[in-house]
Every structure is written in C-alpha cells, then in structure tokens.
Here is the input.
Amino acid sequence: SSSSSSSSSSSPGMACVQRSWAVRSSSPSTRATTATPLRVSSHVVSVPSARRALPPTPKPALFRVAPSSSKGSWLTARSTPTESAAPISTGAPLGTYPSGPNVQHVDFMVIGSGIAGLSYALKVADYGTVAVVTKDTASEGCTVYAQGGVCAVLDQTDSVQDHVKDTMVAGAFLNDPKAVEVVCKEGPARVLELVQMGASFTLNQDGSLHLTKEGGHSSRRIVHAADMTGKEIERALLAAAHAHPNIHFQEHHLVVDLVVDKHAGMPHCFGADVLDQRSLTMTRIVALSTMLACGGAGQVFPNTTNPHVATGDGIAMAYRAQADVSNMEFVQFHPTALYDTTNTGRTFLITEAVRGEGGVLLNLAGERFMAKYDPERMELAPRDVVARSIHTELILRGEPHVLLDISHKPREEVLHHFPNIALKCAELGLDITRDPIPVTPAQHYTCGGVVTGLLGETSVQGLYACGEVACSGLHGANRLASNSLLEGLVFADRAAGPSVAHAEHAIRSCAEQLRAAAAGAGSAGAACQLGAAPAAWAAAARKELRDSMWRNCGIVRHRQGLKAAHAHAVEVGGQAKAALAKHGVCTPLVELLNLATVAEITVACALQRRESRGGHFCVDYPHPVDSECRPSLVTLRPAASGRIPGVGAGAGGLGNLATLSSMASVPHSGVLASYASSTAAGLGSGGQPQQVLNGYPRSFEAMPGNNATPAPPSIKGKAKKKGGTQQRDLSVRSSLDKA
Here is the structure.
C-alpha cells in the first residue's frame, strides 16, 4: 500500500517488510505462460490462460519455536530462508516458546473460511504458516449461500463514480466515503483475480462476462455464476487454499476467545483459545497476527438466510477483547426469502437478481404494490425500502407473505439464470416459469461490526477483521446488493501487508507476551459434554432470545421494545456465563453467550440513534435527521470484560488496563502508522491518533502528516472530562442509561 512506502524511513524493520512484500508482487502465486483475452462485457481484459492457481513458492515462516512432536507439530516445521525472500530481522534473541499438547504456534491465524478468510490466507501464506480455523466444514458459511453475485465496474458504460454514488445512496450517506472509494476502485482487479484463480462465472454467447443488475444499482455490474455465485467462489478459493503448502485447516473447531495482552501500554492479540468440537479438547493457538473473518450474526434472529454457524462469534470475541464495535443497529432484512412453513433452519434466499431481471412484487390479490411506496424505483429500490414496504403491506392486509413473479419472462431465460431457485421451488410444487414465488422478509446481513480502518486494522494491535464481521464504513446504514463479497476481497488484500508487518514487529518486540501466551494455555478451561437438562435449557434460552430480537428489534422498532430486548439479552448473557462457569466450555453455551452479547450490542446501538436511517427504522423517530448522521459506537469497559472464565487472557492481560476510551482518543492508527511513529520500545508508543472522516477513522495513508491531531468525531455517547481532555464513555450500559 502507499502507506508502507511513506513509512519506510522511520523503521528499519519496515524496510525489511517492504522487501518481502515486493517479492509477493514480483512472484505472484498464479502463473501462466501465455495470456488469452477475456471479454468483460463491452471491453477485453487480458488474463492468464491457466485458470487453476498453481502452488506458490513457499516463503520462510516467521515464528521460531521449539520442535515438538505434539498435536499440530506441522506448525513448527520451518523452512530455510532463501534469496527470494528477505529474512525476518528479529532484533533480539527469541529463544524458544513453550509447546505441548494444548498449544500450537502459527504465524497467521484466520478465523473463518469464507471469501474474506480464504482470500486473506492465500495472500499471507507466502510469508508464513497459516491456520484456518472454522467451526464446521471449511465450505460451510455465508459465502457458499450467496446467490446474486459480486459487483464491480467492468463495463465501459459504467463508472467507479456511479458505483460510489449507488453505494452511498443505499447506505443513506452514513458510509465512510474513503472506504467506498477504495472498494469501488480496487474491486475490479480483485474480481478478475477470481477469474484468474479458476472461478467459472456465467458468460454471454460472445464469451464476455454476463453482468446482471440488482436493486440499488444504476448499471449492470453484477458478476455471477447463475444463481450459485458464492458456491463457485468458495470452490475456487478452497481449491487454491488446499493446494498451498503453508495453509492448514482445522475444521469443527470453535474459537472461544481471543488471547490478549498488553505491550507498550496497548492491547495486542496473540491468537485464540479453540475448542475441538469432536474430541472435546481445548487448544491455545498462539499467532503473530490474527484475522477475524467469521461472518455476521444472523442467528440472533429466528428468520434468517444465514447458516447455523453465523452466531456473531467474531463480533462478541472482539468486543470482549475491548475492540470498538459500531453500527450494529443496521441489520439488513432481505425482502425476498422463500416463504416455507415447513422450514426449521436457514431460510432459503430468493436472490435480488430475480427482481433485477424483471420480477415484480404482488400482494395476494395480485396487485403490484411497490408503486405506493417507491414509485420511481419500484422493485429495484434498496433492500431496506423494499423490506419495509413488504412488511407494511403484510400488516395492512393481514397476509403471511407476498408474491414475486418472474413467470412473464421467457422460460429458457428464467431457468438459465435461476436454476437453483427453480429446483428449490420445484420441491414445494412450484414452477417459477408459471407460478409466482411466495416470499417474506428475513434477516440477511449485519452491516455493522468490529471497527476497522482501510487496512483491516482494529483498535487491538495484531487483530484484523474483514468481511461481514467488520465495520469498514463501506455499507453505512444499509448494504448495496452484491457489495459484501467485494468487500471481503478488497479488505483481505489490503490487510495482508500490514499483517506481515505486524508479525515481524511481534517477533522483534513481543517475545515476553508470546511466551506468556503459550505458557498460559493450561488455563484455557476444560471442555465438557453438556448433559440433557442444561442442553435443553440452552436451546430454550436461545429460542427466547431470538424471538425477543425479532419481536423488538426487527424490521420496525420502537424504543420501549428495544429496552425490553436489551434487558432480556443482558439476563441471558449473565445466565450463559454462569452456566459456562458451572459446566465448562461447550458449543451450545459459548454460542448462547455470543448471541446474547451481539443482541445486547445491537440494541444498545439502536438506542443510541434518535432517527430512522437505512436498516434501522424506529417509529419514535421515523425520519432521518442530519445531525444524527454518524456512526454508533460501543466499547467494553475493562472491568466488565466478561471473558469466559479461564479463557482468552495472557499473563498480565487486560483486566488491569486503564479504561479504554473511544476511537476518537485512542491511538490505534494501525500497524503501518504505528511503525512510522513508534520507537524500538514497541508498537503504539508515540503513535498519533487517526484523523476522522464522517465519524470514521481514516487510514494512515490518507493522513496529511503524522503530527496532525484530529478533532474528535461526532459519536453518540456520554462525554466526560478527564485530565483536561475530552473522553467518551461508550459502554453498552452508558448508552442504555442515556436512552
């Protein structure tokens, strides 16, 4: 990134990282001897003819540990540095790190195996060992269920400016303009990387990529693989990741909590504690850099298109580690999920592309009703508008669902574009070329999440986040269709360089904390097999929590209901902590705690907002208010960190830290920024605060100078005076008190 070049003079270590990064640029992992033109709509782009990614040349791993014959010893094997990659400069003797049956050492830990996690893993794997930890099979997650596609400006009649405008309009102008610009500009290159890797997208007869259109888009810019785009992208990424010798998967492993310790007065992440759900054993994975890419929190609602694994684990863990979390009130409800009374799990999605290709919405009387709510955009209005319109229509008419009709289009065209939807509906006795599809809104996407900068950095050093788990500022108050897959691709790429830089810093400066993290593995708590009675209680508590969120924090909200939902979430969270302390670590209880935590944060953010905007509609404040157009924010007080007993803290962990304030006053300008302003004492010492733009932190590369001191952003919260400076108490409790 441009920030790395501007920072090189401040740190010898940074120069070494730049040399390594240059190797990546000159030695791409995907090689081909010839290139053939690929048509992308109306113009031609040259891509390699070899569509399968070849295994890259392994680079030397970063983490030096003592050889071990324990489980996971593959992580301790180290290659010899070669001339093709600059060796890591350690700066101080490392010695060896404790190793045993319940501790593993890895250079990069990736939590999640969707488009964001796998893209990131492939980027950093040339520089060290990568552990991809996922709590189901590697292919299970939100990515594989994405139907519509991934958007990028790939047609000469389209423009980046139009994509930026569409994204800002859909996000109700709460977006971070810099994040939007970065994604829209860099997106086309990232999408073409998927083509180069071997992803097979739908083509036109002339061999060009078929671009479809979805709600909120002013042009056709959606690259897709029929109506199974996510499945094809996941297949291509998994094939490339499995072929890479430095990437190793740990499936059916639940990450319980992050390992966090202080260095130079700043919280640092050094991996995580992990539950093997099959053997019921706990392992601590000690990592130099950790990436959260484990998706959103759809399972906090009973009606969701998200799979069972989407329980908000990454957001809840980051919150307990005192990372900033923002904009959680903006929950996207997809307007058209299949209405199926027999469904008991994930709700089947009817992609927005059906409306993009001409599908119309009808009530049960056969009336096309969107003209009453958005006569200009009709069915192609942003998702929040269409979802509320359907919700209103259902309430007014007392009907359980509406109809989505594409039967007026040619049969061959419909079946060609939507084979998966046609197959699913056929199971219910519906022929979508003749019959309308019964649909109803369902939770689909979490627009908020862990606050990140333009390099994927969080307010906890060494912890990165991208994809649905993150709040990058791209989506604002509502996500534009098909921007989610694109966000994962772009920020995975942008976070790779800083992660390598931080890994080198951790080796050079955090030896004591790394040893403490490994030595503390025995304190990770015992796993348990939950008995029948507590398992039944956990299931009942989970159902009650989800029903409460749907009733009080759904498509249409009111403050009295939000306060009731908050009280219920706090109660369930306390019960879950008590159950974990009594019974031990197990998946049902950990997920219950995470769901309660996410529910509490979501409602707290909703109570901060005194307006309706995007995915948040409150009848008490039914209109947008210009002065309220700013991100919500919550940060956990250290005294109430609420970690699972015995889990997630290194020696000298965060329990004794002074209160962390908001992102307005804490220097967390990211790895590269900290390198530029730090001394040999460690990352973060002497770092300057970030500037802010529209309430969001700007990345260091966008700052005019290291010595600039920004004005505090406009963020909801209770302001306090302390030591002559303005600090903000943004705990969940304070936001409820304010409400």
About this structure: The first strand starts at residue 35 and ends at 40. The longest helix spans residues 483-509. DSSP finds 18 helices and 24 strands in the chain. Residues 1-60, 64-95, 649-739 have pLDDT under 50 and may be disordered.
